[in-house]
């Protein structure tokens, strides 16, 4: 396959461009289906006439079908998408980049989705789908899965299309400062529903003092039980955020945010703020998992994309304990550039 791609680049470079454009169109139709041509044209920022011509070709090839409610990808189109995804990965040399980053970041595996999740909602959904696929590979009977909050994690929960009813899902840590849809509690409930499993919730705010946390735990047997289950997690799936953005979203005082910046924090995960190359410089008090707990968890899956998160991913990965990173092409290439220019 790689040799064929090299030949295509030399002899007919326009062919690879057409294949990639049609793959991108097909992928967007799949994610939004049923969908109209005008909506697809807006999503892709393309002229409606151009979209119509490409869609007509896809229909003639049996890859999409039309109905009164819009276009949908056929069964044959879905199979073609899977084959094309591997072609695009090879075209962009993502397979080699995955191996390189896995070695440089000391990870067992890196999965790179083509594109930029900051600019393309379809790529964000693909991140979620890929992370859900990794979870399915590691999930066995009677396991406990801990999940963090965030918009990317919401996509992971939405993408689960398999059932493991014996699974227990728990939030990785307390924290009620997020938008409800992105809170770890909400994501745990959605994920459990998709898996047909059960869930436990942790209703406790972020950033309260250690003394207050101890008092709350002492007076609430249910919270203590949930905290114990979290510590027994077999799998952790978590997002990675930019330090300042996460501090602002959690409503931290400006003085605290300034202090975090002065300490060089660029990334955040599980309420801990990290500087390059992998130093934890600030910790918010909460109940649940911390980065130094990861060594005791069987499989740790980090999910984050977008070039703006490159430093954040590097900083969090540098603290250790991560097993699998699911990211996008934009972030992966930005990470590669940082490493190759000796930024860390």
TrEMBL record:
Pfam families: CggR_N (PF21715), Sugar-bind (PF04198)
Entry-linked Gene3D superfamilies: 3.40.50.1360, Winged helix-like DNA-binding domain superfamily/Winged helix DNA-binding domain
Domain of life of the native organism: Bacteria
Keyword entries, A-Z: DNA-binding, Transcription, Transcription regulation
GO molecular function: carbohydrate binding; DNA binding
PANTHER family registered for this protein in UniProt: CENTRAL GLYCOLYTIC GENES REGULATOR, TRANSCRIPTIONAL REGULATOR-RELATED
Record family assignment: Belongs to the SorC transcriptional regulatory family.
Protein name as catalogued: Central glycolytic genes regulator
């Amino acid at each position: 396959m790689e040799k064929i791609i090299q030949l295509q680049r030399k002899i007919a470079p326009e062919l690879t461009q057409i294949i990639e454009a049609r793959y991108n169109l097909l992928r967007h139709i799949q994610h939004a289906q049923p969908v109209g041509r005008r909506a697809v044209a807006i999503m892709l920022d393309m002229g409606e006439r151009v979209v119509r011509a490409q869609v007509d070709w896809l229909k003639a090839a049996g890859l999409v079908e039309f109905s009164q409610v819009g276009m949908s990808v056929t069964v044959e189109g879905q199979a073609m998408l899977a084959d094309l995804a591997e072609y695009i990965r090879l075209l962009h040399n993502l397979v080699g980049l995955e191996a390189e980053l896995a070695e440089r970041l000391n990870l067992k595996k890196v999965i790179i989705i083509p594109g930029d999740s900051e600019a393309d909602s379809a790529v964000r959904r693909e991140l979620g789908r890929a992370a859900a696929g990794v979870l399915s590979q590691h999930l066995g009977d009677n396991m406990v899965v801990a999940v963090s909050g965030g918009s990317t994690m919401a996509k992971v929960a939405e993408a689960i299309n398999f059932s493991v009813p014996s699974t227990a899902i728990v939030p990785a840590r307390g924290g009620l400062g997020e938008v409800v849809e992105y809170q770890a509690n909400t994501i745990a409930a959605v994920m459990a529903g998709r898996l047909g499993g059960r869930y436990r919730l942790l209703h406790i705010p972020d950033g309260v003092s250690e003394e207050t946390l101890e008092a709350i735990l002492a007076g609430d047997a249910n919270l203590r039980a949930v905290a114990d289950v979290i510590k027994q997690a077999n799998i952790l799936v978590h997002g990675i955020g930019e330090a300042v953005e996460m501090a602002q979203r959690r409503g931290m005082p400006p003085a605290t945010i300034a202090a975090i910046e002065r300490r060089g924090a660029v990334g955040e995960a599980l309420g801990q703020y990290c500087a390059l190359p992998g130093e934890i410089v600030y910790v918010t008090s909460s109940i649940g998992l911390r980065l130094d707990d990861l060594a005791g968890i069987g499989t740790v899956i980090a999910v984050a994309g977008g070039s703006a998160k490159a430093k954040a991913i590097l900083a969090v990965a540098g603290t250790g304990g991560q097993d699998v990173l699911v990211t996008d092409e934009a972030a992966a290439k930005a990470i590669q550039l940082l490493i190759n220019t000796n930024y860390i």
